[in-house]
Automatic annotation (TrEMBL):
Protein name: Uracil-DNA glycosylase
Keywords per UniProt: 4Fe-4S, DNA damage, DNA repair, Hydrolase, Iron, Iron-sulfur, Metal-binding
GO MF term set: 4 iron, 4 sulfur cluster binding; deaminated base DNA N-glycosylase activity; metal ion binding
SMART domains recorded: UDG, UreE_C
InterPro entries for this protein: UDG_Type-4/5, Uracil-DNA_glycosylase-like, Uracil-DNA_glycosylase-like_sf
UniProt record, GO biological process: DNA repair
Domain of life: Bacteria
Biological source species: Pelomicrobium methylotrophicum
Residue ranges occupied by any Uracil-DNA glycosylase-like domain in the UniProt entry: 29-199
Coiled-coil spans in chain: none
Membrane-spanning segments: none
C-alpha cells in the first residue's frame, strides 16, 4: 500500500464504481500539472473525453482553453486538468456520492504528486468538493474576498492532503468558476451578469493568484 493514496496497481484498471466501470470506454486520467502551477478541476469526463481519453477536450473544454490562452497559459505547459471522477457517468448525469468518495483518493494522490498552487474549480460539483456546500454564485463572491483554500471546507477525504500541501507550500488558492458549456455560459447569474462574464473574471483572478504565488 502506497502512503500517498490507494493501491497504485489498481489505478490503471480501477473498478471501484461498477456501473461506471461497465459503461466507460476508458478511465480519463489527469494531464500533467506543472509543479506549483495551475490545475483545472471539473466534475467528470463527458462523451468526447471518454472517447479520446483526455479531460476537457469537448466544446466546454475548448472554451476554457481559449480563455487561458488569452492569458498566455498553455495546457500541459502551464496548467493541467483533472476531474472529480475519472469515468464518464452514463448520459452525463452527475456522479453520485459513492462514486465521488471512491474516486477522491486518486485525486488526493495526484494533488500530492503534483502540488498545484492554484486550483480552478469548474462548476458546482468541483466547487463543493473543495469549498463545501453552497450555491456557486455565493462561493464565487467569497473567493473574491479570500481565495485561499481552507482544509476544513474541503471534502473529508481531501482534508489530509490539503493540510500537507499547505504545510509544504504556504497556502493553495482555490478559485471557483461556472461551467463553460455554451448553454450554461450564456445564462444570467443572480447579479445580472452572464456566467461567461463571471467565468472570465474568475480566470483572471486565478491567473493573478498564480502570478502572486510565483512572486513569493
Ligand atoms: S470513477 Fe474513479 S473510483 Fe470510480 S471506477 Fe472510475 S477511476 Fe475508479
Amino acid at each position: 500500500m502506497n502512503n500517498c493514496g490507494p493501491n497504485w496497481n489498481r489505478e490503471f484498471d480501477c473498478k471501484l464504481c461498477p456501473r461506471l466501470a461497465a459503461s466507460r470506454i476508458q478511465i480519463v486520467f489527469p494531464t500533467p500539472c506543472p509543479r506549483a502551477g495551475l490545475l483545472v478541476i471539473g466534475e467528470a469526463p463527458g462523451a468526447d473525453e471518454d472517447e479520446l481519453g483526455e479531460g476537457f477536450v469537448g466544446q466546454a473544454g475548448r472554451a476554457l482553453d481559449a480563455l487561458l490562452v488569452r492569458h498566455g497559459l498553455e495546457r500541459n505547459r502551464d496548467y493541467g486538468v483533472a476531474n472529480i471522477v475519472r469515468c464518464r457517468p452514463p448520459g452525463n448525469r452527475k456522479p453520485d456520492k459513492t462514486e465521488i468518495d471512491n474516486c477522491l483518493p486518486w485525486l488526493w494522490a495526484f494533488l500530492l504528486r503534483t502540488r498545484p498552487k492554484v486550483l480552478l474549480l469548474v462548476g458546482s460539483t468541483a466547487t463543493e468538493v473543495f469549498l463545501g456546500p453552497g450555491p456557486l454564485h455565493w462561493h464565487i463572491e467569497r473567493s473574491r474576498k479570500s481565495p485561499v483554500l481552507l482544509a476544513k471546507d474541503a471534502h473529508p477525504i481531501l482534508q489530509p492532503a490539503i493540510r500537507r500541501l499547505h504545510g509544504a507550500m504556504d497556502g493553495i488558492f482555490a478559485i471557483p468558476m461556472p461551467h463553460t458549456s455554451g448553454m450554461a455560459w450564456n445564462r444570467k447569474a443572480p447579479d445580472g451578469k452572464t456566467w461567461r462574464e463571471i467565468g472570465e473574471e474568475q480566470v483572471e483572478l486565478a491567473v493573478g493568484c498564480l502570478e502572486l504565488s510565483y512572486a513569493t
